Amino acid sequence: MHHVLVLWYERKWKKTAKGDSFLIVYADDFIAGFQYKEEAEAYYREMQERMSKFGLEIESSKSRLLEFGRYAEERRKRRGEGKPETFDFLGFTFYCGKSRGGKFCVIPRTSRKKFRAKLRAMKEWLKRVRNIPVKEVMATLNRKLVGHYRYYGISHNGQMLVKFHYYTTLMLFRTMNRRSQKGSYTWEGFRQMLTYYPMAKPKIYFNIYV
Question: For the whole model, what pTM was predicted?
Fold first, then answer.
């Protein structure tokens, strides 16, 4: 990816583009942005031609051109179109939005696909450890939660962190309840357990607008 895309972008597009542009690459995933539509279209076309020379091709179902940015909503409104499109990248869905002061900003939120996958993984893990001592379960659970918060704890994504914590709490309660054949583990008993072994709380770790 470095030789096929990054160096090519640096040498050809970054120096010759009429407007602002950027390229972000992570492993085999990447996103490119151009200020002007015609340059974005030219890049998209020539990028596929270049990749084919190296025996590579993009995943058509996950690749597209879209209008995004500071003026996207205004332009689409003039054309009688809906809200600006969103895109997914590295587990986030990115939206065109506004700050509390009314200025344009990019809003990242945990993508629905990744959110569901993370909850499924948590559910499966809780099933596997339901017979392990509570102290050990909670210690590992908190490491998992903090890891999730550290990755997804970014500006504007607090609501999704709270939702992840909420659904994890429900799954933990059901898991604890199944430890007893009588199913007699009550919410009161569960809350008391959490006073001894509290769950890690959601936290925003990164402010991307500093």
Answer: 0.88
